[in-house]
Structure formats: structure tokens, C-alpha cells
Amino acid sequence: MLGLWKTWKALEAKGIMGINRRNADYVLKYNKRNLYPIVDDKIITKERAIAAGIDVPEMYGVIETEKGIDKLREIIGERPDFVVKPAQGAGGDGILVIADRFEDRYRTVSGKIISHEEIEHQISSILTGLYSLGGHRDRALIEYRVTPDPIFKSISYEGVPDIRIIVLMGYPVMAMLRLPTRQSGGKANLHQGAIGVGVDLATGVTLRGTWLNNKISKHPDTTNSVDGVQLPNWNGFMKLAAGCYELCGLGYIGVDMVLDQEKGPLILELNARPGLNIQIANDCGLTHRTHAVEARLAELAKKGITETPEERVRFAQELFGHVPKAEI
Amino acid sequence: MRSLNLHLKVLITLLVGLGILITAYQIFILGIPLTEDETDDLWNIDARVEFQASPREPVKLQMFVPPLNQDYVSLNESFISNNYGVSINRADGNRKVTWSARRASGKQTLYYRLVLTKRYSGEQAKSEGPIFRDSIPVEGAEKIAAEALLAPIRQHSADVETFISETIKRVNNVSDDNVKLLLAGDASTPNKADAIELLLSIAHVPMERVHTIRLAAEIQQSPELWLRSFNGEKWLYFNPETGQQGLPSDRLVWWIGDDNLIKLEGGKQAQVSFTLSNSEMNAIRLAKLTDENTDADFLEYSMYGLPLSTQQTFQIMLVIPIGVLVILILRNLGGLQTLGTFTPVLIALAFRETQLGFGIILFTIITALGLSLRSYLEHLKLQMLPRLSVVLTFVVVLIAAISLFSHKLGLERGLSVALFPMVILTMTIERLSITWEERGGGHAFKVAIGTLVAATLSHLLMSVPQLTYFVFTFPAVLMILVGFMLAMGRYRGYRLTELFRFKAFLKD
């Protein structure tokens, strides 16, 4: 009992945010319920982002009805690779990534050969709501397949690594690089066994990581060190993330981005309830940082100023960046 | 945000305060028992009247019965008599029953039975009484003796109370010559009372005779005489033999005044004997009985005012918030992962019908089999609604099979599952299998165990009979519960599991 109390106090001193605090003080306070559809539906997110001039993977087409499935060939055209996604999917379910095609067949990213009918069945399943939250009818989204930047080759197993930045009222607060592992089946989802690696906000250099709630410093599949990697175009990521506040209006979000070989940083999706494991990846609590942002906001509100995304990025980088390298 | 917090605090205080007040009112003012097992004494008093009726003469027997305007409440009163007319009338704070018959002969026996209890009486009426009386005219030697006695009494007393007790003390001193003269050789209690009355009347202090019955089982007794006097505020009771002041709590006033207990016309050798017995009775049943027999209808607007069958439903319904509270605590404080939010409560309700151990086994078997069916259906790539229908039908068939099987084995328990909510089971299977696919088997197993633990805990709590009774009798408790739930709504501390989840931070 006493041990637990000590743990409690120690965690509190480090500013570790728990689920109850995240829900009460951030999600419920800053995220208006009526804005949720913007982030829950990837198609709306994408449309909004395009309108705001924010980079997203190109959308090839949307299928809304069973009848619309007939248009699949038309939408794909002659493109060799593409991704089929449910608009309201969760946890990366129902996503079909086609890497190549030959004859009239398709090859998925994991090497499985499937027919055109199987893709159509997959889309039909998506439409009936098989993968959507709550089983509602859904729409299928066909979009550009992201080719991860080769920088991640050594520290990633299959799949596409993505970068998650927590943004509070437009201020980036904490960042993490998520690397798929063999266990996560190529998905960049921490619950499924992906690795989370902290990223220094100022420089974009990776820190140590977390895997299944433990701290790690090497990728379990490639055994390469995950820390000390310089992410390219880091300021681009930061600006992209900071701009998402204006995009969706939600005050506390996790912005998921990828680094495409050719197109650079792209926004994949937004999350209105970002997880808390990012704290373990960064070996740092969120609460102190969010409090600092809230103090800044109060100060600015008094003066009646609102900052541009660039100014917000600079503020966050000065305050939260330049984490001294951990001793290994 | 601050105003919101204040708002919430005010709301919580209001709800909790109101809940406590209403419950306290029910407990302390209305005297509703706290537990179902609480019992109260129930007194059964039989008065048997025997007499020899004179032939060819109408019989009229009058007897005093308790006025019942005191601390006691009558639950039942009956006059048992053959061929007698019965009427009751009130006079001067007394109640009198009159038995009458045109013709009767031989030995007659009449019964009066009273069942009463001490609790749940209404508020005491403000008492009133005379504070002055005229002297009883007295002459000669008796006058001198009385005055000789009164002189020291006056000297040794300060007020009505001490005056009376001093008088009783003097009158009981039978070796005193003056007392001997007044009593005229008869030292019985009624005679002493007469002497006391005489002395008091000279001092203009009024006095009444009170005839009481002692609430004690299995003893032979006849009404005991007490004296009382009004001191301007309240009645003071005195024992004329001992001078003891204050009526003991086990005394029941039968009648007041100088008259005899019975008055008989058309008969002789009347005798009254009292038999008392006591029994214990479940307090809440007693309260219900009291409610029916008096005009204090405090239970009318409680849950007990509902029809009996509806009451049973509400007894189940009213404890559901407690089950929900268990889930709330387990999830938000403990961090236990369960399937859905209120699924465990629904499962807990289902356990009511199957009993806990059997329910868990049943739940496990059906869910496990359902999951394997679900994973098979997954290969067929069915749409959601048809797939759910298939699973539900399978669950029904499974329950039927288990019932049949256990019946053949002689386990009657298996039949109780008939109403085990199969929709709940179907949804549980569906959700569990989705969890399995999304988060892996380990997580699904964890969630299933968490759900069972939560369901078991809330079932155990919801089936505590004392708790069921308490919530049903004092529904205002739910307000206190809501207050707690509201407070939990803004709890932002860690969950117990988070202390382990974030342990990595402390490993430096």
C-alpha cells in the first residue's frame, strides 16, 4: 500500500498524465463533441486539410454505396499501388495496401496475391460497417500509398513508420516516432506491439523508446539502436502538426504523420483521444508541458494576441526541445 | 472552468445533503428500522371477564379498555363474546366497552384482546390538567389529624412534586397515630389513596387515580393503582405505596379515575383476569401494520406504497445504481478493463437467475463456444447483421442444449438459465471477438476476465439483502450515490493499473 502511494507521488512529481486527467482536463475541456466527426471520418479530415493547404496523401476516390463499387477500376486507373481504407476505421483495421499488380491480380504489401473480386468484397465489408466504430455504415477511401523514407529501413519492420505529435491548442507538446514490429504485423499501433520512440521537439533527433510499456533502446527485430536518428524535414512536421488546430478546431489532438519518399511530411489522420504511452517513449510526463502551454495561452489571452503556427512551433521548441541525450 | 467546478461542488453538496437529510428524517423522525432483521416487541394482552348472570334479567357489563393515546399503538383489538352486543365509547380520556345481552344465564365469559406495540406512535398531544381543586369537607377528629399531618408536609416541601411525595411518605408511615386514624385500620392501597387525596385536597392540590397494567409476560396481575397530578406543565405520576415518582416504561395506563374496572348489571361475582404475552415481530412488517392501523401514513409515499409485484421489480431496479457504482470504481479508480461500459452490470443481473458459480460456468462455456463459432463465421465473410443473427441463434440453441443436458443429469439448476439474457451473451461474444481481432487474444482474455470480475463483484454487492432493503426503504441514498458519481466525473488522479503501467519511469 505504502509502495503504491510512493509510486503515485513519484509519478505525480514527474508530471505523468493518467487517463482520468487526460479525459477530465484535456479531452473533455478542449475537444468539442460536435467537432469529433472531423477527426473520426478520414475523408472529412482529408477534405478539410486539402482546403487548408495542408499536405495529405492524395485521395483517388471515395466509394459510398454498393453500386459505387463498380467504379473501382475507374478510380484505380493504371496506378500500380494504392491503399483502401474505411473512413471511420479504428486501430488500422480493414486497411488493404496494394503494392503492385500484374495481369489482373494484385499483390498486397505483405506479398499475398488477391483478385479484383476480393478487393471488392473488402470494400463491401467496409461499407456495411464491419470495421467502423459502433458498426455504422461507412465509406471506403482509396488513396495514395505512402512509400516510407529509406531512413527508417534500419529501425523498422515492414509497414510504414509514422510520427505522432500531441498538439494542445496548436502548440506541439510531445512527439513520438512509431515503428512497426514483427509482433504488430506491420501496423504502427502501440497496443498491437509497435515501438514508440521519443523525438526531441527542437531537433527531430530520436530518443529512446517504449515497447509494451517498457523502456527500450534497440529495435527488437533489427536490433539497431532506435535513438540518435535524425528525422529529416523535422520543422516541416512541426508546422504541419501545429496547423492542425486551425484545421479541425479540436484543442487536444494527436496528429499522425508519415514521411513519404517523394512528397515529404503528410498528415495521415488526427486522433481526439491520443494515448499516453508517448510519455514512456519520451521518458517525460505530459502534465508539466501542457501546464506550460496553458500558462502561455492565459498570458496571450490577457494581451489579446493569437500566435501563428510558426510562432507556436518556435515557442514549443524553445521550451520543450533540446533534451539532453540519455546515458546508455 | 472555475465556475463549473463551483457549480459542481454546489450540486454535489446539495444532493448529498438532501440525501442525508431525507434518510435521517426517515430513520430518526419516522423511526423506520435500519435493517430488515430488526425486531420489535409486540404485546398481546387478554382480559378475561367472568361472571354469573342472573336469570331473566338483561345483562349489561361495562369495562374500561386502554385509551391508547400514549406511547403505544394498537395493532389489533378484538372483543370476543357470544350473543353480546358490543359498543365502545369514550369519556373523559377513558375508553369503555359495553357488552350487553337481553338474556343470559349461568357462567359467562367475555374476552377482550389487544395487540399493541411501543414504536411508531404519533407525536404526543400537549397535556392539560387541573391545577386547583376544592377541599373535601372533613370534620372532627379527622380534620385535626389531617391538619396535624399537613403541617410538617408543608414545611418539608417546596412545590407540588415534593409536596405529593412527602404526603405519600407520611401516609405510608402507619405507626403514626394521625395516619392510623385516617386509614381507620385499613392499610390497603385504595384506602391509602383516599387518605392521600384527602390531604392533598385540603392543600387544594388536585389528584387523579391511574390504573395501570404492567407489560410483563407470564405473571398474574391485577391493575396497579398509581396517582397523578398536573403541575402546570406535565403529569407527575406517583406510586401511593412507595412514593416512587414517574411511571415506569413498562406500565400501560388502562383507565383513569375513581371508578371500578367493571360495572355489571344483571349479574354477580364479576372477575377480571389479565394474561399478557409478548412476541417479536419483524420491524418493517410492524411498521407496515402500524401504518395501516393509524393515521400516520408515512409509508404511503415510499416504495412500500406500490403493489407487491411492482415492489419486487423495484427491489431489483433500485440496486442497479450500486452495481453501476462498482463498475465506475473498478474502471475509473482501479483501471480494470471491461467489455463495454455496463455489460458487466447486465451480466450481474443475469447471475441473479442462475446463481453465481453456475452463472460463471455457463457464461464461460457459452462465450467460449460462441467465440469459436464467430471465428469460423469470420472465414465466410458475412455481413454484420446476418452474422449476429447466426450467433444469437447459436446461443439460444446452446442454452437449450445445456438445459436439456443438465436436466437429464438431474441438475435442476440448468433450467434456471431459461431467461439468461441471450442478447447480452450474443453482444458479449461479438464484442469479445472484435477485441480479439483488434488487440489480440491476450487482451481479449484480460477483458473477459475483467468483465467477469466486475460482474461478480457487482452481483455480490447487489444481492446483499441488507443493502437491497436499505436502498429500497431509503431511496434517498441514491442521491448520495449520484453525488459521489458526480465527484468521480472530475477525478483526475491515477488509476491503480496506471501505477504499474508507468512503473518504467521509476526504474532509473
Entry summary:
By secondary structure, chain A is an alpha+beta fold. Chain A is built from ten helices and 13 strands. The radius of gyration of chain A is 20 Å and the shape is globular.
Strand line-up in the sheet with most strands of chain A: 11-10-9-8-7-12-13
The number of distinct β-strands of chain A equals: 13
Q: Main beta sheet of chain B: strand number and arrangement?
A: 4 strands, antiparallel
CATH class of the largest domain in chain A: Alpha Beta
Rounded mean pLDDT of chain B is: 81
Radius of gyration of chain A: 20 Å
Terminal Cα span of chain A:
32 Å
Beta-strand content of chain A = 15-25%
Overall domain count of chain A: 2
Which percent range describes the beta-strand content of chain B?
15-25%
Distance between the termini of chain B: 37 Å
Secondary structure class of chain B reads alpha+beta
Largest sheet of chain A: 7 strands, antiparallel
How many domain regions of chain B? 3
Oligomer: heterodimer
Count of helix runs of chain B: 16
Going by CATH, the architecture of the largest domain in chain A would be: 2-Layer Sandwich
Question: Any overview of this molecule?
Answer:
By secondary structure, chain A is an alpha+beta fold. Chain A has two domains: 14-39 and 149-320, ATP-grasp fold, B domain (D-amino Acid Aminotransferase, Chain A, domain 1), CATH 3.30.470.20; 58-143, Dna Ligase, domain 1. In chain A, 33% of the residues lie in helices and 23% in strands. Chain A is built from ten helices and 13 strands. In chain A, the strands form two sheets. In chain A, strands 11-10-9-8-7-12-13 form a seven-stranded antiparallel beta sheet. In chain A, helix 7 crosses helix 10 (309-320). Chain B is α+β, with helices and mostly antiparallel strands and 508 residues long. Helix content of chain B is 48%, strand content 20%. Chain B is elongated and about 120 Å long. The two termini of chain B are 37 Å apart. The relative contact order of chain B is 0.13. The chains are: A alpha+beta (328), B alpha+beta (508).
